[in-house]
Design goal:
The chain is α/β, with parallel strands linked by helices and 404 residues long. Helix content is 41%, strand content 14%. It has 15 helices and twelve strands. It has a seven-stranded mixed beta sheet, sandwiched between helices. Helix 5 links the parallel strand 2 and strand 3. The longest helix is centred in the C-terminal third of the chain and has 22 residues.
Length: 404
């Protein structure tokens, strides 16, 4: 008698149960294996383990049972064959790109990237003979025109940080595949709850797990989701030999964060959609960008490839930097921090924080004005957040008007 095929479980269920490994004690919560190394029953077993002829763990820089659970749960959620965790989100980006590129290769990337991501593409990669071209991510012709015979990878984030542009991942993936390149997508702002880049044609997806996956401001982490072929040929040896390894403790914290990810992201995004409308109606606000609003620059793309909006809002206030600083300093509940995806609502001024290393001309090209504020919406009562924003904006209206 054949056993029945296991029923496919939905994402919210997998985020609680997926990839769980239990020890001989059959613990309910995932076990935390705080160990550097592992012992072997014999010298022969150690030899077989290092030759990959015997399954098991060798050293926590290579792999660890708690880390394995986090990786397997992320792979299930993302729909990838495998996943590998890293110490930070930037370690994930660096590993995903540099593991597949060599001197003489070329990468095409969207201009609208987090400052550290632009550093990897613009500054670090060229030091090792890897050329880079930056393009307007929304302009498909620029992606096509940037291709060279040695182009090996495309890289983008969507929605972008901080201006929340949304790029046509499927179309960009087609352009990459036509020339034999891989598309790497940073999916942090959409989260795996609202966007599935692999289903749209991307080859590799990266996350800063520090953000929504942890979701409570506790620890750092990153993850690369990809095919087993990419892992075996490029990523595994890179992580093993260069050591951007995640702490088992951090992996355990992130596992617990995954259990509540859908509940948090859906609540945060519902509140964000309401706040975006409130901001758009305020006289001190000159512009609001939020995926899901009809006035979003790529509204059609948002509707086509995203299942929801985002917990992030980008808005501009009158009065430039002075106006933006006055708003931030006038907030009581919402705190000033360059982090995002937290249970606490946070604001930052991109021109002087996350994107301060860019020249004024580069920021202007990306639409990052001195009056721009990025708001990461948390889990506070929506009415309190509405009142907090309104009070801060009301206080700066006279100053903003005078500055104009």
């Amino acid at each position: 008698m054949t056993s029945p095929t296991p029923r496919r479980r939905r994402p919210a269920t997998e985020l609680v149960h997926g990839g769980t490994l239990r020890s001989q004690f059959n613990e309910t919560s995932e076990a935390l294996f705080l160990t550097q190394g592992f012992v072997y029953g014999s010298a022969e077993e150690a030899e077989a383990r290092f030759l990959n002829l015997s399954p098991g763990y060798q050293y926590s820089r290579f792999s660890n049972p708690t880390v394995t659970m986090f990786e397997e749960r992320m792979a299930i959620l993302e729909g990838s064959e495998v996943a590998r965790a890293t110490a930070t989100g930037m370690a994930a980006v660096t590993a995903a790109l540099l593991s597949q590129l060599s001197a003489g290769d070329h990468v095409v990337a969207a201009k609208a990237l987090f400052g550290s991501c632009r550093y990897i593409v613009e500054d670090l990669a060229p030091r090792f003979g890897i050329a880079a071209t930056l393009v307007d991510g929304a302009d498909l012709d620029q992606w096509r025109d940037a291709v060279r015979p040695n182009t090996r990878a495309f890289f983008l984030e969507s929605p972008t940080n901080p201006t929340l542009e949304v790029y046509d991942i499927a179309a960009i993936a087609d352009i990459a595949h036509e020339v034999g390149a891989r598309l790497v997508v940073d999916n942090v702002f959409a989260t795996p709850i609202f966007q599935s880049p692999l289903e749209l044609g991307a080859d590799v997806v990266v996350y800063s797990a520090t953000k929504h996956i942890d979701g409570q401001g506790r620890c750092l982490g990153g993850v690369v989701c990809c095919s087993k072929a990419f892992l075996d040929k490029h990523l595994q040896v890179f992580i093993r030999q260069t050591g951007p390894s995640i702490s088992p403790f951090n992996a355990w914290v992130l596992l617990k964060g995954l259990e509540t990810l859908p509940v948090r992201v859906e609540r945060q995004s519902a509140t964000a959609a309401r706040l975006a409308d409130v901001l758009a109606a305020h006289p001190a606000v000159t512009r609001v960008i939020y995926p899901g609003r009809a006035d979003h620059p790529q509204a059609a793309t948002v509707a086509r490839q995203m299942k929801g909006g985002s917990s992030l809002i980008c808005f501009e206030v009158a009065g430039g930097k002075a106006g933006a600083f006055a708003v931030e300093n006038g907030l009581e509940i919402i705190r000033i921090s360059n982090n995002l995806g937290d249970a606490k609502s946070l604001v930052t001024h991109p021109a002087t924080t996350t994107h301060q290393r860019l020249t004024p001309e580069a920021r202007a090209e990306l639409g990052i004005s001195d009056g721009m504020i990025r708001l990461s919406v948390g889990l506070e009562d929506p009415d309190d957040l509405v009142e907090d924003l309104a009070a801060a904006l009301d206080r700066v209206r006279p100053a903003a008007a005078a500055a104009e």
